[in-house]
Amino acid sequence: MSASNTELTAEEIASEVTTWVASTWNPDMTLAQWWQELANAGFATPHWPTQWFGRGWSRSQALLVHRTLRTLNVPGPPAGLGIMLAGPTILEHGTDAQKRRFLPDIVNGLSNWCQLFSEPGAGSDLASLQTRAVKDGSEWTVHGQKVWTSNGQLANLGMLLARTNLEAPAHHNISWFAIEMDQPTIDVRPLREMTGRSLFTEVFLDGALTTDDDIIGELHEGWPVARTTLMNERVGLGGGGGAVGAIPGRLGGMLTSRAGDSVKKKSAGPSSGTSLAMRGRAYDELAAVAKSAAPLNPLVRDQLVTLYSLERLAQLSQQRGQAEGAKSALGRSGGSIGKLMSTRCTQLAREIGMSMIGSKGMLWAGDRSPAGVIQEQCLFSPAVSIYGGTDQVQKNILAERVLGLPRS
Question: How far apart are CA 399 and CA 408, in angstroms?
Fold first, then answer.
């Protein structure tokens, strides 16, 4: 692994990745073997510290690495909430022992994480959650219900928020636990959406066990830890880095598959509308559809230019905010701005797509065209303004923490 160098140009990064792929890539590897090679080289998480499987590069440099991997038509790093949420949270708040325990399997794809935050009565007002963890020696017994848990049925580990002190104020009585999902006292039930998929699940915890060693951050002080998790979620969604691609973890069933076959599956046809919304890169596939539409409506052409501009603005704003950090208003608010931009781009993509395919937008099942991607994007689009913190919450954050306006 080369030394950290934040002065590398885009051309130098692309050249280094290209040279490494040429000497390492073998389509007959298993996906797990390829992910381990990526992790060893620091290309799975280039923006992580060098001592923890990264290169100490910026997020914009990390995006260049992953863009180069796509151009070379090789699998990128494991998808999912491990790299996107759990890993960055553990890096910031975990002990060295916890980093050694959890991070290796996150970067090499052997583990898959889900987020056990939202509840039926605690969504936007997350601090009002009712799930309880009661201490018994070094163990904690958990009772409660979570909902809107992405891919909970495929996760072996969960990021759990639970109330651990009923006497303290709301923001000082919650702890952030890592919890094993393979327990008979944890019941994961998929929730079928109107897209026909089951991206989200509800989770019932009835005596589930976790331990003191599983607490990330300080006991009863899980709220700052949760804010780190949520900030990384908004940065990922707003910057077009949503958790899509090959599924990590043993339950995903892809670890022993041939790495070359994973590439074929990715390039065989258009992505799902759900993936487009989460990636924030709807323009590329809509532009491909537009090229086959002759003649193209001038209004749609104008909207496509607007969509491209908004997606690039979202990415550049995220990069600038990350570079400036907490010293600037943009750095402090970048996640919220990116989240709002993601909603706007998704809604515009929905309108563009449905305008292009016209009456075909009413088709479903085997009659869908093109491959149902635009129709699914349309159906999924309302979710983008809700998950990762509703748009209304993001506007309140910007109003109060950045503009200094009074609380609503």
Answer: 9
Q: In terms of CATH, what superfamily is 269-402?
A: Butyryl-CoA Dehydrogenase, subunit A, domain 3 (1.20.140.10)
Task: Give one DSSP letter per residue of 149-180, joined into a string.
Answer: EETGGG-SEEEEEEE--TTS-GGGSEEEEEEE
For residue 269, CA distances in Å to 57, 247, 302, 371 come to: 32, 18, 26, 8
Radius of gyration of the chain (CA): 21
Top-level class of domain 113-235 = mainly beta
Per-residue pLDDT band for 242 (boundaries 50, 70, 90) equals very low
pLDDT digits (tens, 9 = 90+) for 2-60: 444 557 898 999 999 999 999 999 999 999 999 999 999 999 999 999 999 999 998 88
Residue extents of the structural domains in the chain: 10-79, 113-235, 269-402
Give residue 196's pLDDT: 83
- Strands 113-116 vs 157-163: parallel, antiparallel or unpaired: parallel
Q: Say which residue the tokens 């002065």 belong to.
A: 7
Instruction: State pTM to two decimals.
Output: 0.85
Give me the residue label for tokens 């995220």: 318
Q: How far is CA 396 from the centre of its chain?
A: 22
CA atoms of 270 and 276, how far apart (whole Å): 10
